[in-house]
Amino acid sequence: MAISNIWYFLSGLTLLSALMVVLAKNPIHSVLYLVFTFFCISGHYVLLNAQFLMAVNIIVYAGAIMVLFLFVIMMFDLKKNQPESKSSLTKLAGSVVAGTLLVLFVALLRKNNLPAPSEFNFKSQTGMVETLGKILYTEYLLPFELISILFFVAMVGAVMLGKREAGERNF
Amino acid sequence: MDLLSDFFLAKAAFIGIVFAITLGIAAYSTYFERKIAAFMQDRIGPDRAGPFGILQPLADAVKMFMKEDFIPANSNKWLFIAGPCLSMLTALMTSAVVPFGDTVTIGGVTFDLQGIDVNIGILWVFGIVSLGVYGILIGGWASNNKYSLLGAIRAASQNISYELAMGLAIIAILLFSGSLSTKAIVEGQQNGHWNIFYQPLGFIIFLICAFAECNRTPFDLPECETELIGGYHTEYSSMKLGFYLFAEYINMFISGAVMATLYFGGYDYPGIDFVTAQFGNNIAVFVGMGALIGKALLFVFVFMWVRWTLPRFRYDQLMGLGWATLIPLSMYNVVVTAFGILIGKPFTAGIVGVVLLIGGLLIHDQLFVKKKIA
To answer: Is B15 a member of any domain?
Structure first.
């Protein structure tokens, strides 16, 4: 089996599951399709020889964030909280906007002939942990540190919001 | 990629053997769990099926298959079936990166006794462990039962909380190995330089987190029968329930193998040079594989020992232990380890770190904790 066939299969699967995220009636099914989409994207990372990104994608998105999504959605009473169906005018407007956007994207891609990667400059080790770490800690050190400070601030904020205030009821 | 190449067939055969060993050990873990429980409670335990009750797992399996396979009317049918399947799948996937041994040469071909030697090995373990909760979550929700849902939600928050401390404990290991590959981690520990001597604190943190991730007593709150009937598997019967219980035993064995890999030198054992010189490389490697499985089984015994010794935690105690004790402890461990490597004395730093911690806790207790008046 050629690699390109795997690529086509995986891309088809990704698009299909991504579509099902939007089309599924049940929010839980939506979340599970989203998890599956993340797996497909991880598969693409493997094809690009970026194993580290694949593992981190699974750990962070499929393993942590999506579990929290499921966690929150399971708390809802799904029968009571059904979103009311949109009017046909809204649906029409939505599909017109989405269709225009799609045409724009396709046109953009066709206009900008993206340069094909040359086989001679291709480095198979680009996606490996060592290379990635070196680049992050030399070339992109400042953005990397700034992002970690941002995360830290967000974490402290979340803890502050979740903290029980003095005199509040202790369950 | 040729699907019928020798390489592919050898890997497939090896993975098949690992699955067979894992499933066999998981099946007999159920028997030994009951035997050990019986021993600790001064009973005899199962002794009807075969000599010493040795056929009990077979009898249990037949019973599980023969029971009515019931699906509740208002459940979500497909997700109800998917739950136990996902549990089994994630339980079995972790073994792919555990290095069961060094390379052996059979008939002029060199085999690697490891499913896949990827350079992100330990991240793979971590990723699959974080996926393990999906089976419980989906099964618990699809049962359409309040108790199942509560069990599922408990499982989700417990797994996410303990993953953090587990990840930090792994980071201290990575500081030693300088690589994410499980093979490299084991190779760095050969000849008795086991990580447990350098990382006693890290090992204890990892062990506690492994208990929580496997949903074993004292952290088996997702299936806490005193509060939640049966927890996430309240509505399950027949082999679907069997899958959930079986996945737990597989998880125990695999997490034992991972702990042996990370902290107890993997397939290293004393006298490996002697065996190699006397009987050749292949025998030495297979003895090493046996040593790894033996270490893993020792951890399975520890899991059972603790189960029949300690009572269950309360849920807020569980969360408090995870967030307020284990995470700060593992951060302290990372700092001490990094400092030890920086000054070039990791062993001394590890010991001094533990002594300082205990001393600090004692002083803190003396100064700030009010004594109860008897």
So the answer is: no
Query: Residue A1 and residue B3: Cβ atoms within 8 Å?
Result: yes
B85 touches chain A (CB under 8 A): no
Beta bridge partners of B103: B112
What is the domain extent for residue A156?
124-164
Residue B160 touches chain A, beta carbons under 8 Å: yes
Interface test with A, best of B85, B97, B126, B131 (most A CBs within 10 A): B131
A96 within a domain of the structure (yes/no): no
Interface test with A, best of B78, B81, B134 (most A CBs within 10 A): B134
Last residue of a domain, one of A79, A109, A143: A79
Average pLDDT over residues B294-311: 89
B152–chain A Cβ distance below 8 A for any pair? yes
Residue B127 placed within a domain: yes
> What residue spans of chain B are helical by DSSP H?
6-40, 56-66, 77-93, 121-131, 133-142, 146-177, 182-187, 195-198, 200-213, 225-228, 238-263, 272-279, 281-307, 315-320, 327-343, 346-368
Write out the residues of chain A at the interface with chain B, using a CB-CB cutoff of 8 A.
Answer: 1, 3, 26, 28, 32, 35, 51-52, 54-56, 58-59, 62-64, 67-68, 70-71, 74-75, 128-129
- Rounded to an integer, the average pLDDT of B144-167 is 86
Handedness of CA B234, B236, B240, B242 (dihedral sign): positive
Evaluate whether ipTM surpasses 0.85: no
Whether B53 maps to a domain, the answer reads no
Do the domain assignments include residue B35?
no
Q: Give the domain range for residue B327.
A: 73-368
Position A104 scores a pLDDT of: 93
- Check B160 against A128: CB less than 8 A apart: no
CATH number for the domain spanning A11: value is 1.20.120.1200
Residues in chain A with pLDDT values less than 50: none
Once rounded to an integer, what is the mean pLDDT over residues B273-286?
78
Cis peptide bond N-terminal to B218, omega within 30: yes
In whole angstroms, what is the distance from residue B312 CA to residue B318 CA? 9
Task: Determine, yes or no, domain membership for A154.
Answer: yes
* Total tally of structural domains belonging to chain A: 2
The total number of structural domains in chain B stands at 1
